[in-house]
């Protein structure tokens, strides 16, 4: 049947009806959303891409009309290449204007962007392309000194479905993105049956706690609701200027309220090529940025740099901080240093997003991770047996609601354990609910390391370590770090009689397998055996305690 998507666990009809009746889902799609904004205010600036020159000479400014026209021509070009509705396209672009041209073109034809991060390498990209049977892969030529065209050639030779590699910049052996759009301005057929609001818009990446990252299917209806809700809470309107400092594809800068929230509001998006103060501060001054989002380590760097900066940051009204726990002590320093309101955000690509409110008392802003966007968000805090705990007690966070998925994409076995039978998502976060309904993140039950907002799935890294011929067993755990909050420590048991390996050589081996740099263990500890739990599993709790004690001892 048209629109039938077997890999996607749809919202049960009764819930979909409820979410529509409540006005959460309004039957919007991203393709039409941009068309409407462009019709309402064609000449307003949508995207500012400062390009490589710090003096502003290479800056590109696209109006809503221009972005809309570009998305149309790109959509027509993609259809001409045979990329159509339901096809998957892995998009791995840095913070450049083309990201929005491509993504809105894909939205318009109903092809699904798969949002890779710029740091991903062979092992991640190969998996995304193969697992989604991607028809195309969109890359920069060289980014951060890395040539993505070579990576694309390797992946293309391994993944038979991958018919096109589209390059923003010099294409090398591939196709230039600039050659995809049709020259004919009216080429995208207005009668083309694009996606329906209840259908999928894209696949987002999960932070992950399993051997390979899971993919998160989001619909137009549900995601656009999260944008509208975020905009209201963060007071984003047509006068707002959002600085995208984190990688644009990540769910936080994409949607909380992020670039897509800003575009929904008819606001302006400014793309920062890097999030460091030397790049971001001049952009804030020059473009009159009103809000942005950062992970905690960057918020610390900004807070420190603000004291001595020659740049005028007074346009900045709101700094969103999330992705990892922001310490209360650091949170208190934001307003005095940057002169703006701190807004904590505790979100996840699977759905649920919590914000402190702009007019909340200081104690709530610095001491909690906010409360849900929607009255339709259902929150449960439970014990190990899924029994609800009294308010104020610490337990596992389960959630269900109008923008939280009911299942990962093509992952029935995972879904059986990641969701309760009645559709609550098991976040893996350990939280406490305050009397006023705010959440405080107290820890984590999932087997993941949160490296300053960058998520590392322990099992994924263990698998890479186990590929080394001298390694018998591996266990990856977090260790405390004053700057990132956590770093990764790999405990390794070598094979008996195996060639001894040094820590540096093992890290080099892991890096050589082609994975995002932030996943390479920060530290390797060799041991003869792992501590066991009562049931004979590796006790990661004991390993975490051991490395924390070791670090504390050394000071
Ligand atoms: C503690 N842990 C947090 C916070 C996320 C907005 C903001 C962040 C994300 C994100 C996002 C945290 N304090 N303030 O998608 O829209 C940890 C939790 C959570 C996981 C989700 C958004 N904010 N976390 O970080 O999918 O463990 O989304 O379950 O990358 O990050 O990670 P991710």
Automatic annotation (TrEMBL):
Q: Which GO terms describe its biological process?
A: siderophore biosynthetic process
Occurrences of domain AMP-dependent synthetase/ligase (ranges): 35-409
| This enzyme's EC code(s) | 2.7.7.58
Keywords attached to this Swiss-Prot or TrEMBL record, sorted alphabetically, are: ATP-binding, Ligase, Nucleotide-binding, Nucleotidyltransferase, Transferase
Which branch of life, at top level? Bacteria
A single GO molecular-function term is:
ATP binding
Please name the pathway. Answer: Siderophore biosynthesis
CDD domains xrefs? 23DHB-AMP_lg (cd05920)
InterPro entries hit by this protein: AMP-bd_C (IPR025110), AMP-bd_C_sf (IPR045851), AMP-binding_CS (IPR020845), AMP-dep_synth/lig_dom (IPR000873), ATP-dep_AMP-bd_enzyme (IPR050237), DHB_AMP_lig (IPR011963)
What's one Pfam family the UniProt record gives for this protein?
AMP-binding
Q: Which residues form the AMP-binding enzyme C-terminal domain?
A: 460-537
Q: Which NCBIfam families match?
A: DHB_AMP_lig (TIGR02275)
What is the similarity comment for this entry? Belongs to the ATP-dependent AMP-binding enzyme family.
Annotated PANTHER family: LONG-CHAIN-FATTY-ACID--COA LIGASE, NONRIBOSOMAL PEPTIDE SYNTHASE PES1 (EUROFUNG)-RELATED
The protein's name is (2,3-dihydroxybenzoyl)adenylate synthase
Q: Which organism is it from?
A: Streptomyces mobaraensis
